[in-house]
Amino acid sequence: MSPLQAMERSYAALKTILREGRLAPGHRLEAVRLADEIGVSMTPVRDALNRLVGEQLVEASAGDGFHVPRYSEAELRNLYEWHAALVTLAIRTARTLPDPDDLAVVLATRSHAEAAAMGFELLANTTANRELRTAILNAGDRLHAFRRLEHIALPLPAAEIAAAITPGPDQRAAIRRYHVARMRAAPKLLEARTNRK
Q: What is the number of alpha carbons within 13 Å of residue 92 lying toward its C-beta?
């Protein structure tokens, strides 16, 4: 395996673990242990961890190493607010509408966390602005572990994502409602994320 392949393999494996919320907030990410689990040397794991720090999926501090980020209520609310602003900007600058067949696939997805990820990616892809698309996907990756727990804190997460991603005159308001509901549920989402084993 080439060094680039080892780094990409490490990056993909670590990103999946983080997005799925398999590790508790604050969990120390030890490069040696992760390298053994992934089946690569420590160098590509360190490179992947540094890349994930740049994407804010991992936190790093001098002398304390790498950790799964811990969010305060205010930080989680800010992240939802940021995501809402990005998605709203994407639909305002959209050059196309999402393909109806692609929307149907998203709406038929059983996991509302995956439906949200796929749906907001569809909306991101309607804008020609590459920076905006990247920012939406990054914010979505950072929110994904919380999306997987929304059924605990929110009554109708699937209906809210359907309204938010479906084009129409009420779409911007639906996007706002979707995000405001999650901002209000931030304490419950953080508690569920902290208590998840």
A: 10
> Which of 63, 39, 67 has its CA nearest to residue 53?
67
At 21 the three-state DSSP class reads coil
Average pLDDT value for the chain = 93
CA atoms within 13 A on the CB side of 31: 16
Residues 6+ apart with CB under 8 A from 26: 67, 68, 70
* pLDDT tens-digit series, residues 121-130: 999 999 999 9
* Bridge partners of residue 61, in order along the sequence: 65
**CA 147 to each of CA 6, 43, 182: distance values in angstroms, whole numbers, following the listed order:** 29, 31, 9
In the numeric block, which tokens belong to residue 26?
A: 């604050």
Is the separation of the CB atoms in 162 and 175 below 8 Å?
no
